[in-house]
Amino acid sequence: MDSEQQLLGLCQATANALMSLSRDQENIKSLLTNMSQIMIETCRQAHEAREVSEAFFSSQKIPDKTKIRCVFMVSSIAAWDALFDLYKDMLDHNSFDPVVVSINYRTGQDQYYDGEQAVSDGLKELNIPHLRFDMEDSFFALKILRSIAPDVIFRQTQWDILYPPAFTSQYLSFAKLCVVPYGISILEKYDKNSPQEDAHAISCDTPYHRGAWRIFCENEYTLHKIQDFQHSLPEKLVLTGYPKFQALLDSPPEWPEFKRPLTNERPFRIIWAPHHSAGDTWLNFGVFHKIHHQFLNWAKNAQDIDFVLKPHPELFKSVVIRGIMTQEAVDAFLTEWNNLPNCALETKRYGGLFAASDIMITDGISFVVEYPIFNKPLIFFDSGAHSPFNHVGKTALACAETVHDFETMKKIASSYKDKTVTDTHKDALADLLKILFPVNEKPSKIILENIKESILGK
Cross-referenced InterPro entries, in alphabetical order (predicted)? Predict the structure, then answer.
């Protein structure tokens, strides 16, 4: 039964109820509430039908075959490196016309969409011209997007539910959607054969993947994983490597300025990168809530070490929402951390930070794969309860020192500082690099050539 039929039925039922149940206020209230909900849903469906219809007819335009217009929808400046190299190469290619737009977004912890201002500010710092889709009604922005008439659209993540309604897959179908991963899948639960029934829904078989024109795969493992679902034609999947790696490696070393007096001897440089998933049964990697006091004490007593805190963007919000820490406790920690002369907080792009550092300590996921490409020592703090790694994750973990307590972690880090130990993970790193760099060509070059040949011909 469709919404209109439901509405008619409820109207009749309400009329009957008003006559026969006039004294029964609760029944009448319930019926009126249900009718109101159906009316709202009917209006929403009508609105969506009109928008989808407009999207279809706008897609029937005669394309300009001289240049391929590509729109980058940026919702996180911290994840921009996954597309940055591609954007820069388009600027130097006479077959492409790249356009960048900043948009609102929400994380899994939020009930509202925001963040466009921070994205716009980050793009300005990089001197990237962009349009601002900061309007509250995303469908107004969608009309602007359609007027731009993009041939190709890149969005940063696959989860429709985290985007404003007009930026979900169904409304972007007037252009060719291209998937470039912002992270590498290294967890077993994202496999099709995972015991979790909905694992595929957040990995590589979402509506965004199904509706995509191209999925550019970072390694053979991901390519085969998507093929397992049998929802994509072979030409839709293209093995390219991970464009983000090139952007990270191309970043010049950049280390924060500290308030400590300058000395002749360069301090040892540690990145502390805590994950957001403390107490999250889905991932459960984070240990920030268990060791943040110990880190503060270490920093206070180790003035010959620079500490840069590079938290997951959701960390401080996540531990509060889950009731693991109070907002007051988080604020007190950050105040004390930022007041230390040898401590800093970094929340933006991080390629330059990696290049300038000496070692990383993390309990997270993405950095376990990304930091080793800089050929520097990595310490992985194991929560002891996290989701298992897949083959790629296990290969990456073999490049790190795994610890389960703070004192062991501190001892290993100090050994690298004092140069009493050297990294012995060269063989494991060689195995990892074979997976992470599956092709000899630059990933962005493969992507551009595939798009160009598919749309304009060879």
Answer: Glycerophosphate_synth (IPR007554), TagF_C (IPR043148)
The residue type found at 440 is N
Beta bridge partners of 99: 71
DSSP letter assigned to residue 201: G
Q: By C-alpha distance, which of 130, 113, 80, 154 is closest to 350?
A: 80
Q: For the chain, what is the domain count?
A: 2
DSSP code string of 66-116: S-EEEEEEES-GGGTHHHHHHHHHHHT-TTEEEEEEEE-B--TT-SS-B-H
CATH code, domain carrying 151 = 3.40.50.2000
| Each residue's pLDDT tens digit, 125-138 | 999 999 999 999 99
**Tell me: the pLDDT tens digits for 224-252?**
887 777 777 778 999 999 999 988 999 99
- Residues 224 and 321 reside in one and the same domain: no
pTM of the model: 0.78
Convert the pLDDT of each residue in 398-450 to its tens digit.
999 999 999 999 999 999 999 998 777 889 999 999 999 999 999 999 999 99
Q: Identify the domain containing residue 134 by its residue range.
A: 66-241+440-456
Same domain as 389, residue 418: yes
